[in-house]
Amino acid sequence: MKIVCLDADTLGVDADFSALEALGEFISYKNTKNSETIERLKNADIVITNKVLITKEVIENTNLKMIAISATGMNNVDLKAAAAKNITVKNVAGYSTNSVVQQTFASLFEMLNKVSYYSSYCKNGEWAKSEIFTHLSSPITEIFGKEFGVVGLGAIGKNVAEIASAFGANVRYYSTSGMHEDDNFISVSLDSLLKTSDILSIHAPLNERTKNLIGENEIAKMKDGAILMNFGRGGIVDENALAKAVDEKNLHVILDVLEIEPMKENHPLLNVKNGQNVLITPHIAWASVEARKKLVELLVKNIKDFINGK
């Protein structure tokens, strides 16, 4: 088998591909432009892709037998075209739950507890100049007693809900699929969740039910000063409306995903007046060392199963 990885850098420079090298001829590219895909997949049996598009054109101009997606989302592959040519498509799920949940709260704590601000205050020598033992210029707030809304109660959303509850928050949720129920938390409509939440955390996939789920009208229903977090997918929330609400409603925004990635240089959230209300990370919540190691292990298993006819 000839196995070609199109975007190895998306798995980190420390990714260990030795197990793949043992399965056949293995070729790895750091990244691949769409215009390069067909040429690089010439004579390939298996392609590994994280974000590189495997379009109908790519499928019709190659002889792929398997598409191994090194992620959970499958929207970068034309699944109908693959099925028409009897190409096996496998993704990897469940590897990043702990990582995403941890990053969700790490980001929330940064917003609520201002850790970076207070650390800088000490490191730059300001505390040493103080006449009193403490410094309270940037107020910190608690999760305890807050109304905590979760959009999407899959594995990640459920874990976030459980931890928020452990901190003493009043947790409610809205299931975007209608398939997830949990008697430990109260299920409400999206409208109700938007109106009541002090903290709203999104952990849903991007699909026909969730695209543009939270637009300008929905954001307008949120409390002034509330926190909106998106650790699901870009495209679920209207980012232009978010930027407007940061200044007009004092909305606080925490994002690990954007509709277009990498982030545009002129993104509206980079130009808000209340910049202290915005925390953005470059799609890293999934990517703990442990999660990426597990991802590669599951990726290898998928390819081994295919080769062995499972």
UniProtKB/TrEMBL annotation:
InterPro entries: D-iso_2-hydroxyacid_DH_PdxB (IPR050418), D-isomer_2_OHA_DH_cat_dom (IPR006139), D-isomer_DH_CS (IPR029753), D-isomer_DH_NAD-bd (IPR006140), NAD(P)-bd_dom_sf (IPR036291). PANTHER family: D-ISOMER SPECIFIC 2-HYDROXYACID DEHYDROGENASE CATALYTIC DOMAIN-CONTAINING PROTEIN-RELATED, D-ISOMER SPECIFIC 2-HYDROXYACID DEHYDROGENASE FAMILY PROTEIN (AFU_ORTHOLOGUE AFUA_1G13630). It comes from Campylobacter hominis (strain ATCC BAA-381 / DSM 21671 / CCUG 45161 / LMG 19568 / NCTC 13146 / CH001A). Belongs to the D-isomer specific 2-hydroxyacid dehydrogenase family. Its EC number is 1.1.1.29. This is Glycerate dehydrogenase. Pfam families: 2-Hacid_dh, 2-Hacid_dh_C. One of its GO terms (molecular function) is NAD binding. Residues 25-310 form the D-isomer specific 2-hydroxyacid dehydrogenase catalytic domain. It comes from the Bacteria. The keyword Metal-binding does not apply. The lineage of its organism: Bacteria, Pseudomonadati, Campylobacterota, Epsilonproteobacteria, Campylobacterales. Keywords: NAD, Oxidoreductase.
